[in-house]
């Protein structure tokens, strides 16, 4: 097994673990917290109950934020662009504009998770990015890109090709294995 194969296998395991954890957080813990919040809201508004309600609301918010960081259900329900827009807003405090559609063909859960993880990292590295545009050809364009081109070598090991021109980073898979 060459290093690239080992890296890809490790990434696939990581992405699968993130998907399972996010699903558990969303489907079990967040829903239980929501039920507890709704139940408390039906009771009299005593001070201890209000404190418990505030604590549960905060715990539910933390679970939602963690789920978005790992793998939001929105990624599989609506698509990559909506998920990275949510990530930028809720995790980075930035509004980004998205345009186009990249998810027009069926993707495996692993492929979708790999794209989401790569986009998360690029939004952190490219803190100047305000727009992400998808092309039907399968490329994403991040602009304006003011990050270091040298910091993009890790994408190659994950099966992505990144190019930078005119303050725009373009990301696509090296081989069309979407």
Keywords:
5 strands, 13% strand, alpha+beta, 178 residues, elongated
Please describe what this structure looks like.
The protein is of the alpha+beta class and 178 residues long. Helices cover 58% and strands 13% of the residues. A 5-stranded mixed sheet has the order 1-2-3-5-4. The longest helix has 40 residues, at 3-42. It starts with a helix and ends in a 5-residue tail after the last strand.
Category by helix and strand content: alpha+beta
Taking the sheet with the most strands, its summary is: 5 strands, mixed
Strand proportion? 5-15%
Average pLDDT, to the nearest integer? Answer: 83
Order of strands across the biggest sheet? 1-2-3-5-4
Describe the secondary structure blueprint for this structure.
Blueprint: H1 3-42, H2 47-70, H3 73-77, H4 80-92, E1 97-99, H5 109-125, E2 131-134, E3 140-143, H6 153-157, E4 160-165, E5 168-173
Parallel strand pairs: 1-2
Antiparallel strand pairs: 2-3, 3-5, 4-5
Helix pairs in contact: 1-2, 1-5, 4-5
Task: Give the gist of this structure.
This protein is 58% helix and 13% strand.
């Amino acid at each position: 097994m060459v290093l690239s194969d080992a890296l890809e296998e490790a990434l696939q395991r990581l992405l699968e673990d993130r998907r399972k954890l996010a699903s558990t957080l969303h489907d079990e813990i967040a829903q239980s917290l929501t039920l507890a919040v709704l139940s408390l809201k039906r009771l009299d508004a005593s001070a201890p109950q209000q404190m418990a309600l505030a604590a549960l609301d905060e715990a539910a918010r933390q679970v939602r934020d963690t789920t978005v960081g790992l793998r939001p259900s929105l990624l599989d329900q609506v698509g990559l662009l909506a998920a990275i827009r949510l990530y930028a807003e809720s995790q980075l405090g930035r509004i980004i504009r998205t345009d186009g559609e990249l998810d027009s063909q069926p993707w495996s859960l692993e492929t979708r998770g790999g794209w989401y993880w790569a986009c998360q990292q690029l939004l952190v590295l490219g803190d100047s990015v305000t727009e992400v545009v998808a092309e039907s050809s399968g490329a994403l364009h991040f602009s304006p890109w003011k990050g270091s081109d040298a910091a993009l070598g890790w994408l190659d090991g994950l099966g992505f090709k990144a190019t930078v021109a005119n303050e725009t980073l373009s990301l696509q898979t090296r081989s069309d294995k979407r």
